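Hey everyone, long-time lurker, first post.

I ran two proteins through the pipeline my lab uses and got sequence/structure pairs for each. Pasting them in order. The first:
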Amino acid sequence: MHPINLSHRVLLFLYLFLVSLYQASIASSLSTAPKAAHHRCRDDQRSAFAQLQENLEFQVSSSKAELWDLKTDCCSWEGVACNDAGHATRLDLSFAYDEYGDSISLKKPNLGMLFQNLSFLVELNLDNVNISAQGSNWCEVISHVLPNLRVLSLSASSLSGPLCSSLSKLHFLSELHLDSNYELSSIPPSFLANSSNLETLDLSYCGLNGSFPNNIFLLPKLQYIDLSENSLLSGQFPEFSLNSSIQHLLLKNTSFSGNIPLSISNLKSLKELDLSRCKFYGAIPQSLANLTQLEYLDLSFNSFNGSIPPFQRDGVANLSSLSLEHNQLNGILNSSLFTLPSLQILDLSSNQLSGQLDEFSDASSSLLILELSFNNLSGSIPRSIFNLPSLIELNLLYNKFSGPLKLGDFKNQRDLEFLALSDVSVESDNRSLSDVQLATLYLPSCNFTEFPNFLKTQNTLTGLDLSNNRIQGYVPSWIWKSTLTTLYLSGNPVGFPKTPPFVKVNHSTPIYNEDGVSSFPMTLTNLGMSSCNITGSFPEFIKNQETLVFLDLSDNKLGGQIPKWIWNMSLKYLNLSWNKFDFLDQFSNPISLPYSDTLITLDLHANQLPGSFPKAICNCSQLTLLDMSHNQLRREIPDCLGKVPTLTVLNLQGNNFDSISSYAIASNLLSLKISDNKVEGKLPSSLANCSKLEVLDLGGNMIRDTFPVWLEKLPALKILVLQANKFYGPIGNRGTATTWPMLHVMDLSSNEFTGNLSKEFVQSLVGMQLTSNNESRARYVGENYYMNGRYKESVTITNKGQKMHMDRIITLFTCLDLSNNSFHGEIPEEIRILKSLKVLTLSHNNFLGQIPSSLSDLRELESLDLSSNLFSGEIPPQLLRLTFLAVMNLSYNHLEGRIPQGNQFFTFPNSSYEGNPRLCGPPLTRKCNPEVNEPATPPADHEDSWTEYILDWKIVGMGYASGIVIGFSVGYTILSEMRIKWFTDLIRLAGNKERWFNQGQRGLQRW
């Protein structure tokens, strides 16, 4: 053995020995902390606490004017603990926050000075102590002056970020609580990188953004991690190791995405998993059913598909809550879920589950809530459900169950409070549910022809939904119970009675109905009576319902004026659309409205409201949705709308407005629709301030301006409709590298645009370059708007040759319409990169040259219209590859030769080719001359040249950075000349694999 090696080993042994002694001393200080009250504190510790107390500031009303009596032993103070040597090891000021909301703050928060003599602290708890004046410096200071910390809790301490990597220097740290500090912002990649002792991390409600370092999930001792309610925080799971200690994994309402890795089965100790309201997709790992310690599982509001894991009694005996709602789960629902011994909550609503529910034995006696609404379940409702003894809530709305169903079957479930059934024939009699007192009963579309008599015995009912039945006549007075707060009768031709319940009386005064039964006046908060065939003027009885929050009287035959007393209520949602109102009382002057602090949704569309825009609406400081489309409003759209801070949806379509104020645009708008008015002049540049805008529809006006290139500054824009205006000049901007990253519907038709369709413009349409395989699920534009789930974003486009009004716009739908303009030149080869296009309309322009064969790369294309142009030459046989193509119009060009035969081309009519006198062959009756060659059979996918892939890569690269373009261009040139066989084979093989994968995915999507 060499001497130098021996000396190294001796030094290493001494180092490890000293480290172990140091750790032992720290452990000793911790173990003696509970005995602190028996030891007198040191003078330097008392001095440090006195200085700290001097810098603490209480609310004036606080009863805790002083924390400690400085004349007593500091080790006996509340919130303080010491070790045997009299050093403070614990400081907890969280108790200073009382039930009245009084808290303390540091007037001069120089943490370094205050804590410099408290270096033996192993636990610091300053929850609810405001140290905001420290700025973002707190992180470095605490890491430097308190190196022995094991527990650091600064919840709701008004901290600001970003978080620093120096917290990794706290090598003994086992618990870190920084939750409810809303301005911590970003996390450095090296955050907590070496925290091998960390067991608890709480960063919930911190306003975090950016990417979360996923190596933190792999810390060996980590048991609890909560990142919930950081909606801008993104990240993905790593591959979990076999020795993971994680028990609680909470990511609710973050932007974490991707698949859940199969290695999640390694989390053998996992008790709580909450990934709700994230962006995860793919299949739920079946191995979740093998996590035997699991107690709580919430994967709701994601994009998961496939089947539900096979949870069994013996596998997850402790599971008490299973929430998988609002996903795309499909397949058969295994009834064994209802038998899990500890299960209390089962929510599978809003999925695509299908098939019949089997009867089940050994029903769980613990099940309290069963939610299966909004699926495709069919067959009879299993009678086993009536044997769930503890059930409190049962929701089977909007499935395909068959009836009839007797309400008397629920008679033994006496704890039942919430019952919701729909689309089945429900049978009832006077005794139905007589032993069950419900709080909420929803029975829409259940074939009732009259108000069920059993409702007379429901004395605790607060919510009743009988909408979309076949009930006729007046609403009986016994319905109006004093407990009733929610009533939905929409879709029934019923009328309002003229009985005493609508008279405003003292709430202690009983009212007698026609049966002589006494009741008390109700105080409704929700009333839905749309499509009830109500005629005449505004119902007067509503005047007495001053507690109304939700009122829907849409699609009736009400007319005249909207009375001023309606604005004296505390309404949040008001829908009077599809009526015949022609006057807004009290709106003639811009005065303050009583409801201006409560109204969130105001829908008055499809009435007959005349005159100028009622400016008093601008005083609604909480207004989120305003729909006054399809009325007779005129003059200018006022600038006061731009001062409504919460406005996200503004729909003024179908009026007679003639101008838009330059400052009329609210910066938080998500959707702005002003189509089919008479707006003239230029487009207000203030639209560029609407950075969140997703939908902009200005079609059908008389706007005269150049193409608004500056709209490319709107990163969230998904739908742009400028059709039927007077826009002119070229489109796009060659001088910038801006893009449309999210745009998937662009309609510029029927304007006066000129010039070429440049390759730069095509490359800027980034949102049209991603195929449906890149979408985790079929989302709808506007589904994230907060509108009580009732607002549907819509648009009118030309699809497959016909004007089509789309009530809901799926994000997978991609459309480019440049028809009825004066574009000229050839279609650039770069058109091939718009791979997600489903509708391409270039008709009625002056495009010339040959139809590019690169259109065959648009494999998602369903409608192609190139009619009324100057195209020449033959129809490319490669278009036979467009197997989804349902409509193709090549009429009125200068095409010639034989029409390709095969696939979708067999389905196209003569009209697709008329106006091309030199075309021949089926479906035309014009036969081809013998000398006319058969069109070349398109090469099979696997025979495409490798140069086509290099060209495709080069085109996409050009849309992002010139450096990448140069790299691909040089590479292409070198490879073209060298023709290295092994490399071309490799490229061809890679291309085939990619194509096979894409075809498989498309097939699944179509299925």
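...and the second, right after it:
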Amino acid sequence: MPEIYNLNVTVKGLTPNYPVVHCTAADGICLMVTGLHVINAGITMLAMGLSELFDLRKSYVMVAGIAGGNPEHTSTGSVTFARYAVQGDMQFELASVPPNWPSTSGYFPLGTKGPNKYPGSILGTEVYEVSEALRHRAATVAKRAKRKFNDTDVSREWRAKYTQLAARQPPGVQECDTLTTNTYWNGAGIAEPMGRYLKALTNGTGVYCSTESEDSGWLAGLFRAFVLGRADFTRTIIMRSITNYDRAPPGVSDYDNIFSAQQDVTYYVGLQNLYLAGREVVNDIVNNWHTFEKGIPTKNYVGDIFNTFDKPNIDIGLVADNIDTWEGFDEGAIDYIDKLADPTRNGHGLTIEDNEAEGGKQVPRVDAAQLYLLGQEDSLKGKHTQLVAESLNRMLAQAGELGLRDIPEQMSMLRFADPKCIQVEGFRNDEPDMVVVHHQEGGQLSLRAVLKMKTWWTGCELGALNANPNKTDLGRWLGQLAWYMNQGNCKYGAFSNHRETIFVKRSGQTQFSVSPTYVAYPADTNHRPALREAYLYWLSIIATDHHFDEKLARPDMLIAVGHGSSDPTTPQSSPGRRPVGKPSPLGGNRPGSSGRGGGATGGVNEQALLKRLAKMELGEDIVGINGHESPPISNGVDASQLDADLETCKLVDIDGTCIGWFTKDVKIKKRVFKGTFIRASNGEKITSIMKVFPPEDDPSFDDGRTTLFDTELWASTRMNGSQYTPPLITSGRSRGGYTTPGGDVVIKGICPGIRVQDDVWDSLTPATEGHPILDALKAAIQAFRDQNLVLWDLTREDVLWDESTQKLTIVDLESADSLTRVPGATDRFEIRELIPAFWK
């Protein structure tokens, strides 16, 4: 591209080695070289952003650089586009580690005393997030160059040495994330902990696939220019080609891997493919400036880890003035929750009878809309106050009239157990510092009406809000919940602590109704899961005729279910569908958005869908249900085989790419199936049609197979009198135990806060045939071995599997600063995220 040198502009403050910016004369394409490593890149980018010679306010800034690659996710010669850039070396590092150190390197996060934890100290440049919509568009157009990508025999031979499937693939284009360090490191012993660090800082949503030395720096410089109004951070693209692997293949040392002659070849292959892919992206911007000029709309948070530019569009004062009693709160739901308070109820399981209101009727269904459940894991006290709707109404109404200092309500102090990752930015606009203290038997708290909660990392679309102050109160959380409900156009919400829940219904733009407080478990019961478990049970029953594709990554905090709508009281579909499993860990949907752009969810015309399914023929497309514009869905099997498939299929893999519906009735070949779950993979072909209840016209259809409810909120229930299994595991059950087709293990999100009696865990031996927790964890252990994975604890409790005794042990991290591994223990699993690697 020789025309790039038509204009050559010297800019003060650029790296001395590359002080000139080169530009074309006609279309405003410029090339700037940042120089190597974080400091050069950061100062150079900031100098460029502040220069009076350039105006970056409508400019698209794309890095085009090389990187090392993670063989688990990419291959040499490939071009990657990142959503997150994580600075990996802002950590402690030990040259030698203590005994039983749970990591393969001496790195561990600042503000902690060991590895695999969320940092206790956050400085602000740890994570930058760019527009996912722009990233996806750039990656899509870059794929046009794939057929021209360079490759060599030497590159292919080097890739063949690796055992990972991704590493052996020819050059391609991937959407995955990058990690910045000043140190040029190599080896699995460092790479794997670095990958876990990236995963933690992105709330489990990032996918580590490239490592480089500049991205955190130039993004910091550009973001500072953005803060000063000199650039637009939403127009940022991170493009890196893979020129080597971050670890050696089998039989090669890490030292030899760095200096191998093959890397000289893969280096040039990566550079050539970087240019080919980048040219497609630049041409797309230039040729479609009518689209790009106004910016590519994005729904994910964009910015730094401090959530600097996520401003709400709601005045919490209006919320406080419009809280009233939720009249007619569903009696069926109340009856259901009351059943959970029964101390004689056995274990975690609920039978189908527990899910029916008085008179045999199913509890009322919540209409499809986004729902948030905001909860806590532990409390300072064992028992919390019960706050009725009238007192809450009076308290918040007075907050609008008299000021917060004048509210004499009694409440209790709450405490969260997770890492300290929260800052409160502001309160009432007119009274930013108003605080009132309530007293109650040795405890007190500060009540604040929150304008917004400023989180270091969240994942609202994923179903997570890592908000963990040491002291908080009900009023603050209800204000936060109301703000998130408004932001996501949500109709229903709930706040849950260890034992109690308050349900919230949105009745207008800034009007919210609050239910009485419900207690799920009495203080003297030994059954002590957090109330969110009870509420998720309830939700799984009342909302099973809708599709829920939100993941539950950190179930102790904010849980997002379903999709929003532009009308908070009337769910509806919206055009387009964003891929499942593409969450926003830094603030959820943008203000004014309609949830996740949910496509069919909540707006599916069920009757139209059923009619189409009843007439399915081989290869026929199901297009435009209720007018939405999601991809066409085709049945992948001949309609004549559907009956047989229903009788023989097992639970297909439940992962983030699946799309499905839970319908009341499906009629196929004049046969009506009640409660049928239809799943499609990648939005293209129906891969399974699962029966949950036996058809009324076919009582013989009884194979004991059950679809379990899981923490992704896939609707499920029991079949043929078998016990309803709680959201501790996710798996399909056949006669042989908890399995899935092809041996794939599907276990996601064992809920934290589960306190199981010692005698229960002591009974978990191979003799306990068919015990779901044992079966699931044993399957998980095997999956970890197959994948060569070891995940260490990030929460308060740990599960240890002792290979020699085939027994499970729970370790309480509260009582020990460090853990000593059980003799013979080969694997240790984090309760909350057993297999996050399967969440792709």
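Reply from user beta_strand_b:
Welcome! Quick read of the second one: The first strand starts at residue 7 and ends at 10. Residues 606-743 form one domain.
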